[in-house]
Amino acid sequence: MKRLIGFIAFWIAVGMLLMLFLAHHYLIALLIIALLLLIGYNCYLN
Questions:
Q1: What's the confidence (pLDDT) of residue 27?
Q2: What is the pLDDT of residue 3?
């Protein structure tokens, strides 16, 4: 479980970094974060 939490935390950080560059488009930034979380979660399990 710790590895999964760590992996998800990494993708949250990547999404937050992208949000810094897209600060004027909060909706797009939130969608990117959600997409990265889904990709990271699926990659870890498969």
A1: 79
A2: 76
What average pLDDT does this structure show over 1-8?
75
Spatial neighbors of 20 by CB under 8 A, at least 6 apart, are none
Structure tokens at 4: 């999964």
Phi, psi (5° rounding) for residue 21?
Answer: -80, -25
pTM score, whole prediction: 0.57
Residue 37: how many CB atoms within 10 A of its CB? Answer: 16
Q: Please give the C-alpha separations between residue 46 and each of 8, 16, 24, 41, in angstroms, as whole numbers.
A: 14, 24, 35, 9
Q: Which two tokens stand for residue 23?
A: 């600060």
